[in-house]
Each structure stands twice: as C-alpha cells, then as structure tokens.
Amino acid sequence: MILRRRHLIAASGRAAAATALPRIAIGQTDRRPSITIAVQQIANSAALEPLREQSNVGQRAFSFIFERLISQNLLGKLEEVPGLAESWKRIDERTVEFVLRKGVRFHNGDEMTADDVVFTFSRERMFGPEYDIGSSKTLFTSVLIRDSVEGKNLPPEVPAVAKRLFPALEKVEAIDKYTVRFTNRTPDVTLEGRIGRMGSDIISRRAFSEAKTWLDWARAPVSTGPYKVREFLTDRSLMLDAHEDYWGGQPPLKSIRLVVVPEVATRINGLLAGQFDFICDVPPDQIPGIEKNPKFEVLGSTIVNHRITVFDKNHPKLIDPRVRQAFTHAIDRQAIVESLWSGRTRVPAGLQWEFYGPMFVEGWTVPEYDVAKAKALLKAANYKGDPIPYRLTNNYYTNQVATAQVLVEMWRLAGLNVQIEMKENWQQIFEANGQRAVRDWSNSAGFNDPISSIVAQHGPQGQQQQVGEWTNEEMNKLSVAMEVETDIQKRKAMFKRMLEICEREDPAYTVLHQNATFTAKRKDIKWKASPSFAMEFRTINFATN
User: Fold this and answer.
1) Where are the domains of the chain?
2) Which residues does 260 contact at the CB level (< 8 Å), separation at least 6?
3) Which of 251, 303, 390, 524 could form a disulfide with 438 if both were Cys (CB 3.0 to 4.6 A apart)?
C-alpha cells in the first residue's frame, strides 16, 4: 500500500522585515542588520556541497543556502511541508510527480525550472558516469544526459552518498517546464522522504556547468535559499549575503557571517563582549553562567540525532561479538545524561525516534547497564585485558572529550582496557591501519523512517560498511527487503530485527544518548531554535526589539 497522501501547499504568514541591530552600522538604502554567528566548525571538508559534506555542522550552513522540493518545518516538528515544489502526488508505488513553484530564482538570477531539477539528480552532478542499479546494471537516465560537464570529476564520496540516498532511482523526467516526475526501479514508500532530505538540494544547472572544476563549484554553490555565498574561507569563515530575489520574501538580514571559533570559552567571551550575536554548540553546564547576564539567553532542545559509539568488528579484540556486547552493557547512560548534560537530554529507545510514527518499535530499549554481565561476557570471550584503541576528535561534538573520559572509566570498571587516541580530523579517524577499533560518531534521521538512519548509515550502502568496519549478512538482506516492502507491519518487523542484530547480537554501534544542541544569543533578538542542527533566518524567524 502507499503510505503517503498527496501534499498541497499550505499558506503561511510572513512577519514584517526586521529593524536594525543597535551595534551595527546601517547603510542609507538598506537598514537590515548583519549578524555574526560563532560556530565550532563550518564544514568537515573544503566544500559546501551537501553530497560531499554529509555532516552535522554542514547541515547548519546548508540551511541558509540550499532548498529542496520538500522541506522540513524547522519551527515545528520537522514535518514535511512544501518547499520548491508547491504540491506533489503519488502516481504509483514507484512514482512521485511534483509541481514546481513558478518564479523561483537561483542566486545567479536564473529561474528554476524542471530542467534544473532533472540535472540536480543526473549522473553528471550526483551519481557519476556508471551508476548501476542493483544486479540489473541499468544506467541512470535523465532528459539532460546528453549534456556532459567537462572537467567535473566527482569526488568518490559524492556518488557513494548518492547511491546511499537513492539506491534504486531509475529516472527523473521533466514533464513540462514546471512538472517533474521521479520514477524508482522498485516500490519505495520512502521516496518522498529521500527527495526531502539533505543531499537532494536543488542546484542551478548553468552555474554547475560554468564552474571550472568541481571544487570551484563546491566552494560557491548556487541554489535558491534565502542567502547566497559571498566568500568561503575553509576552516575560517563563511560570508553570506541576502538573496534579494528570494521567492519567500526579502530575507530579514543583509548578511550573515559564520566564523570558526573552536574553543567554547572563546565563543562565550565573544558573545558577552558583543563580538558575536549568536554562538552555537553551547555545553549544558555553561548555560547558567551565560543566562546570569540579562542581555543573553540560551535556546535549544533535543534533536533527531543520537550520539553513538561505533565498533570495527575486524579488530582482533572485537571479532568476538561478546566483547562488543560487553562494551554496551558497561555504560551507565543515565549517569552521562545527568552529569554531562544536566538532564537536558535523555537515553532514547535505541536508534529510533518517535517521529517514525507507526514504524517506531515500542518497548525497545538500549542494552541495560550491568557491569557483572559485561564482566561475564569478557570472561566467556577470553578477553585478557589487551588494549583497545578509541578514536575521537577534540570536541567536534559537544562534551565529546568529557564523554570519552567517562566511558573509558566505565569500561575499565568492567575489565575493558580502552585507550583514547585523539585525532585531528575525520580522515584520521577512519584510517584503516589495523588499529581502528572503537570510535565516536552520531546518527541522524534524515526523514521519518528507519531507512534514513539505521539503513543509511549501517546498511549495505551505509558509511560503516563502505569503510569496511562492519557487515552482517542478515542485516544487509533486511535492508534491501525493507527498501522495497510496502506493507507497514512487515517493514516494522524487519526494523525490529535490525535493531536486534545491530544493537544486541552483533553490535555495530551502541547508542549513548539523544543529542541536543544549544545556541546562545542576544536577548533583544527574537528568534526560535529548530529541533535540528539547521538554523532558520527568514522573515518568519528574526526580529529585534
């Protein structure tokens, strides 16, 4: 059966344009303010291309620049709302048709049409020249396949991510100037979710084609969002200007500057001194100190992202699943939530979120905290206390180092000899030199179905299997089957079995806690935080006293 209904555009009110921020110099013709946001990091790579930069920090920057056919309500519960498509409908179990908004302008002034949408999902931009679908080896087709883009050698990560997002996309067709049809090779009840998640961002065909190299494109991408790239300095700053022809109304800010400030204390001091208007990634224990100053406040909540510990089952000490099971039972997750997060997050029901709706597995829990059981498992596995490396970066995640230190002590009490290895970047984290055993990570739900999380990250096309850390034959078969299954009860049973495999029997990961993100800002700025890493700065979400 088809699980989704036809979606129609919903009207939404627009607030008046914001007045000027007191401390910012105002031009004679444009009285909108400009703001500065201090972030821990802008991107993990030198690119602003969502297909290359599938990261938590990238999601924040992309929310200014890119848009998709289907959007998430960033000021609500991330439910699907019309984006660049004003409506869409199911044709059958394999096909979805979209009616595009008319008059949408890209950052370069071109009108967005069906040709741009088709090109966005083409081999040239997304999948690479030899995109195979399953065993049939059917090549991806599009009406623009004849337009090859010279010199655009895609980084290998791009087609890898594309295939993860769309494992069976057959074709994308322009029915007319403002109508686009997506056809899957197999039935897929999640097709709308895939089209609305990060990585399906619509781009300008002409801008991509005119860029000299892929990296030139990726450092100054052209989409339809409320702000456009002026300058991107890797690991330093991102300068954005208002997209004056934005279809959703004139953006309330003249410009936005994201500046990289890795140290928490420096971000906080800069906010209090008036150097920054917003600072991101505030640790919970710093919130009371900031809010002692009546000029500032901290907003935020839990988000659809879980912090997890990931295992490389190929490491000699982790081949036996009982050792990995011991890791999972030696963690007092509630103690971490209370001590490091001041109770501002929670221990979730495994790798799932309630917004899965009917696909949520009721009654499922993370492995119980049981040191005696962990010790018994290690004894049965004949583990002798050999050192096991644990790789992490320096506070890419909030409280990352502190969490690692607590975990190492908890594991030590169970008899596990875990040794922290600090790495400078993710390339070093993933380096396969025989010492990759345990690492820090997180997992997000890109849309309201398990396909977007457990399959996307741990299934046969998921990052964990792509880098060679973990695989499980039954899990892989279930992943493939669930992607084409349309019966909700059968899909739910498959998902429950995946949880049993990945979290209990042959651990690929273990969930620590639900992630939460907190943003501190000037109190005179009227703004609402989103339940995600993305930030919303349109007329509906910015004003000053």
Assistant:
1) 7-16+32-248+523-544, 305-515
2) 39, 40, 41, 42, 235, 236, 237
3) 390
**% residues pLDDT > 90 (the chain):** 85
Fold match, 7-16+32-248+523-544 / 305-515: no
Runs of H (alpha helix) within 449-540:
454-458, 463-466, 473-484, 488-500
pLDDT digits (tens, 9 = 90+) for 445-457: 999 999 999 999 9
Structure tokens at 450: 């398990």
Reading the block at residue 137, the tokens are 């080896």
Q: Which CATH class is domain 7-16+32-248+523-544?
A: alpha beta
- Which three-class secondary structure state does DSSP give residue 390? strand
39-to-261, 262, 535 alpha-carbon distances in Å: 6, 7, 12
Contacts of residue 411, Cβ cutoff 8 Å, sequence gap at least 6: 327, 330, 331, 418
Tell if the pTM clears 0.90, that is, is over it.
no
Residue 43 gets the label, from left (phi > 0), alpha (psi -120 to 50) or beta, of beta
pLDDT interval class at 419 (50, 70, 90):
very high
- CB 360, CB 354: distance < 8 Å: yes
CATH code of the domain made up of 305-515: 3.10.105.10
